[in-house]
Amino acid sequence: MIHQNSPLAQKIVLISMILCCSGGWAGAQKTWVVCPDCPTPQIRQAITLAAPGDRIEIQTGDYHETNLVIDKPLHLQGIGQPVLHGETGNEIMIIASDSVRIEGLHFQSVPRSHLKDLAALRVQRKQHFIIRDNTFDDTFFAIYLEHAQYGEIENNRITGRAVTENSSGNGIHAWYCENLCIANNQVARHRDGIYLEFVNNSDITGNYSTGNIRYGLHFMFSNDNQYEHNTFRDNGAGVAVMFSKRINMRSNLFDHNWGRSSYGLLLKEIYDAEITENLFSNNTIAIHLEGAGRISYQHNTLERNGWAVRISGGCVENRFSDNKFLHNTMDVVLNGRMNDNSLAGNYWSEYTGYDLNHDGRGDIPFRPVKLFSYVISQAPESILLLRSLFIDLLNFSEKVNPAFTPADLTDPSPLMQAL
Amino acid sequence: MFKIMQYSFFDLMRSRWSYSYFGFFFLFTSALLWLSGDIAKVVISLLNVILILCPLIATMFGVMYYYNSREFTELLLAQPVKRIAIFWGQFLGLGFSLSLSLLLGIGIPFLAYGLLASMEIWHFSILLFNGVVLSFIFAGLSFLIALRYENRIRGFGLAILVWLFFAVLYDGFFLLLVMHFREYPLEKVALAATLLNPIDLSRILVLLQLDVSALMGYTGAVLQRFFGSGLGSILTLTSLVVWTTLPLLAIRWVAERKDF
């Protein structure tokens, strides 16, 4: 939370410094109005005329201007969502100065390009920007941040038209950034809703990411980030965290990421993360682990997923405790050995044991791996027998007398009541 | 033949068995609907019940009905009626009465619950269609067995065995096959094996329509492509038709050679 406030403070210092240097207090903040019938009908004119620190008010209307380079600290405020139209081969706006603030604009249509990652709004190597309350519609990449720091991206509505992965861009794309705050945005129908590559110390809060063909939120080589209270619905995979360290994931909703290769949360080569109080419901695979290590999963609810947790090779020290596993087709699937991963003290809706000493913990261990899920991991074609009577019998007999399922994969102290 | 079918049909419709069969489905479906409140989920729950119960009841009922109406059959045989008309008539009567109990027993609660307003009507129809087809197939098989074996114990035993084979054992062999040859690409084999068992075929047809098909991964994708294609639909229908007509032809073959 500290660094959310600090950009503001730093900005104030910065702006006052600029004001002081550019001729003292004589030129206090001035407002330039842009509208189709005004003395300055073009945004570009206004940008040229304005002094650093000025405010430009853009009135309702259609503006066909592209490659608008903002090269001084300005505050662009849209009144009544003025529409900025893009055109083939060009971007709409480029922030090339520190302390720029963009509010209330509507960016419409940046045609896709197969050569360049064209964006509606690009931030290049700058700091302390605020992008707030804007609408991006049918833009190839909506917001593209490169080497940007201390930025706030808040309350934007971003809608794409992605059809295939190859021909589409990301909603919010950040590359080599630090200390970003991405909050309360709605991102839909892009390749990745929010894409972070080499992004550190950032907060992603309260976003709603839906209908993206690849991932709702995608971390690559990004460390020390946290995301909270986001909703990821109907994406190829809700969130993919890859090659990253120390990611804190809390109170997110992963809902209905459902399809042939869909995941709620995909973890690949990630270490030292904390996953707490999230709700995973109706995902094909709620959590998929591949080479994930030293991760603690606590107080999550996993309900009505195809597979609740799927553990592939190379996973160590994953600790599941106090989670609720409710009505999943398969609770846990393990490829390979249990290693030192542990499941202890979770609530399992399938558990049928008893608690004689009334300590709230079942007296017999729960085995979350059904024989059938073991068989499927061995021979995928056997999924054809899903919901057949034979399989129910098989699972039952294995439950009574375990012979094939990994002996060490048990919850030794399952909870009797869901917390 | 239709006269005899009518007689059998109305005779069966008056029997306690039909009522209890209807009653079971009616109560079960109503309970599920009112408890879960989600039509899509109820369709899944019903799937297993229909896949197991329809063949089982059809088998037991078929054998029982044949043995019980033996005197009537012998009386008919003495009349100037074609032999095959008697047996096919009885079979159709049985099949229709079972189907009617099933359709009404499941249909009424669904209609009362507002099925027509929901999007699940297509899944629901497929489910019912499969139930009806399975009833006919297994009624035919059981008639054939009963006709072939005079000994009731043996007839019952064999009928149960046939049901057990298709409902349970077949899947066991399938699993063995898949596990044993897991090094090889088995999608085509799996497909063929599915087509050969009406219960498996019905189950997969329903599952592919439902949301859960996403769980089937690559194999499911292959299946969906197959069943969605023209060839697939034709093969599926052919398989079901063959499964229905094969027992009928066999009944004729046995009936015409049998010395009553």
Can you tell me about this structure?
The complex is a heterodimer of chains A (419) and B (260). With 419 residues, chain A is mainly beta. Chain A has a domain at 62-235: Single-stranded right-handed beta-helix, Pectin lyase-like (Pectate Lyase C-like, 3 Solenoid), CATH 2.160.20. Chain B is mainly alpha-helical and 260 residues long. Chain B has a domain at 2-166 and 244-257. Chain B has helices spanning 2-13, 16-36, 39-68, 70-77, 83-113, 121-148, 152-180, 187-196, 198-209, 217-228, 230-257. In chain B, helix 2 (16-36) runs parallel beside helix 5. The longest helix of chain B is centred in the middle third of the chain and has 31 residues, at 83-113.
Q: How are the SSEs placed, and which strands pair?
A:
The complex is a heterodimer of chains A (419) and B (260).
Chain A (H helix, E strand, L loop, with lengths): L1 H20 L9 E4 L8 H7 L5 E4 L3 E2 L4 E3 L4 E4 L4 E3 L7 E3 L5 E3 L2 E5 L8 E6 L5 E3 L2 E5 L1 E6 L2 E6 L2 E3 L12 E12 L2 E3 L3 E9 L2 E3 L2 E3 L4 E6 L5 E3 L2 E3 L3 E9 L2 E3 L2 E3 L7 E9 L2 E3 L2 E3 L3 E14 L2 E3 L3 E5 L4 E6 L2 E3 L3 E5 L7 E3 L2 E2 L22 H8 L10 H12 L19
Parallel strand pairs in A: 1-2, 2-5, 3-6, 4-7, 5-8, 6-9, 7-10, 8-11, 9-12, 10-13, 11-14, 12-15, 13-16, 14-16, 15-17, 16-18, 16-19, 17-20, 18-21, 19-22, 20-23, 21-24, 22-25, 23-26, 24-27, 25-28, 26-29, 27-30, 28-30, 29-31, 30-32, 30-33, 31-34, 32-35, 33-36, 34-37
Chain B lengths: L1 H12 L2 H21 L2 H30 L1 H8 L5 H31 L7 H28 L3 H29 L6 H10 L1 H12 L7 H12 L1 H28 L3
Helix pairs in contact in B: 1-5, 2-3, 2-5, 3-5, 3-6, 3-7, 3-9, 5-6, 5-11, 6-7, 6-9, 6-11, 10-11
CATH topology of the domain at 62-235 in chain A: Pectate Lyase C-like
Number of strands of chain B: 0
- Provide the CATH superfamily of the domain at 62-235 in chain A: Single-stranded right-handed beta-helix, Pectin lyase-like
* Number of separate helices of chain B: 11
**Cα-based radius of gyration of chain A, to the nearest Å:** 26 Å
Shape of chain B: globular
Q: What level of helicity do the residues of chain B show?
A: over 70%
Q: Show unreliable segments of chain B.
A: none
Q: Using DSSP, what is the number of strands of chain A? A: 37
Show the largest interface: A-B, 26 and 34 residues
Order of helices and strands of chain B: HHHHHHHHHHH
Distance between the termini of chain A: 29 Å
